[in-house]
């Protein structure tokens, strides 16, 4: 294997960082023992910039390329999310019914919910009335749901030793 660039990040398929590498878990490193790496990373990923600096924390995260609205070192997103009413698309639940007696148990485009005591529940549309608003009350448990794309867990490591990358 050729010598890596200092600060290079690689995916590893085994469970530990090889010699000269460290897991990208956000750990703090002393500047005085890692001056070259600090000169590349600075405090982009954390640390106080006097005594310590941090490695990138890629635990449970997907790396993204720097872009117009994404800056280097920025961390965002969440592993699970609970939807609020304000996040749901605008929609309505209009349900009309008739006060006529039900005549069939099979709905069709010209029938609607009707007054029923037994099995039939639908009747031809006539004498339309609005249903009780309580029949369409909110439902759900407000539990968070998984919010991650399909994934495979691998170890992300950063080179602590290697060739200092030149700009040209």
Automatic annotation (TrEMBL):
InterPro entries: Phage_tail_collar_dom, Phage_tail_collar_dom_sf. It holds the Pfam family Collar. Signal peptide: none annotated. It comes from the Bacteria. Residues 7-63 form the Phage tail collar domain. This is Tail collar protein. It comes from Intrasporangium oryzae NRRL B-24470.
